[in-house]
Amino acid sequence: MGSEIQFKGYEQHQGALLPSFVGDALDPSDPVFFVDDVVEGLDLGAFERRYAARGEHAFPPRMLLKLWLFGAIEGVYSGRAIARRLCWDLRFRYLAGDLRPDFRTINRFRATHREDFAQVFRESVRIAQSSGLVKLGRVAIDGTKMRANTSRHKAMGHGHMVEAEARLDDEIAQILAQIEELNEDEDDRHGDGDGGGGLPAELQRREQRREAIRRARGQLEAEKGQKLEARHQKSFADPEANMMKTGEGALTYCYNAQVAASEDGIIVATGVAASPSDQAQLEPMIEKVKQNTGRRPGTVLADKGYLSEGNLAMLRRRRQRAVIAVGRERKRSRKWPRGRLSRRMHRIVRLPWARDLYAHRKTQGERPFAEIKQTMRLRRFALRGIAKVTGEWDLVCAAANILTLHRVRAEAA
To answer: Which residues 6+ apart lie within 8 Å of 379 measured at CB?
Structure first.
């Protein structure tokens, strides 16, 4: 009765003679171990060749790749956020070992190796194949509008561009006239010697602004051609992004991100386009499936966005079996297709075997986007420019494949 209550010993600041291994504190089923094993088995010669032999020792690209892949799985797409995780998240600390790269190093790695991420994605497909996955009897091709790293507040319409450029021309001419008048006055008083000094800051700012507007206007005019209207916009932050309507109905700057998915949920091809239309993406995606897997798809499933006479003719030339919708799903089309091949596809999709095949398109083709947007929480690209965005998309899709492989192996264990 008189004895005091005993608690477990608690010494928050007590050190240890032999520090424990970080991995021992983690759940053995955590995907961090699978990411570690996968990257350790990759040939990163292409990454390593981008580093110089001299100078300060660089952070290992293998470690930085692990951080980005696991970051994508966890929905962390910022170099600053990953750097913060290295301070408190044991899983990130396990991948980094005793190293603590800052956010600039982490971000620089993603920008520098954007072309190498395509090989990482292909390796994820190869690993899936060696695990008995990647069934290509049905391959669903689909696209989604992913927001770009810009906004309408950083854009200008063509009509306003013309007005702004004319206004800047007048302002620059006025500043130059003032400079000329001032120079003549100084020459009269002090001689015609060179006083130096360079251009005033206000003149430099206006010239830089005018040049940016001219570049954006020229790109917009080249893209739209005869269809150009005064309301058409171009972003200054990311000129390659275009206005697209998202699945939520918002009209904003996006890229058209493409995937081709196998029957068992593995992404076997990726692509990024600056155009909202999917029609031009069908043939490149089919070709990438063959390049990445070594085999051609049995049947290609695609929605109406990929339907065109040119695409159907291409499929016939390639002798590629395909089922492409000719109308909105679950809605009966009232208009008979105009083209001969489109009318033929219209008859095909009404056959029982074609309906059975096409019934898999929505779940098979849109599942990767649901995984990436919901589980991995990617709703907006972090990089700018289609080349950098393509590398970012390859990295994210490789992480999605690794996550799928981890789940398959966990279920089989």
So the answer is: 146, 147, 373
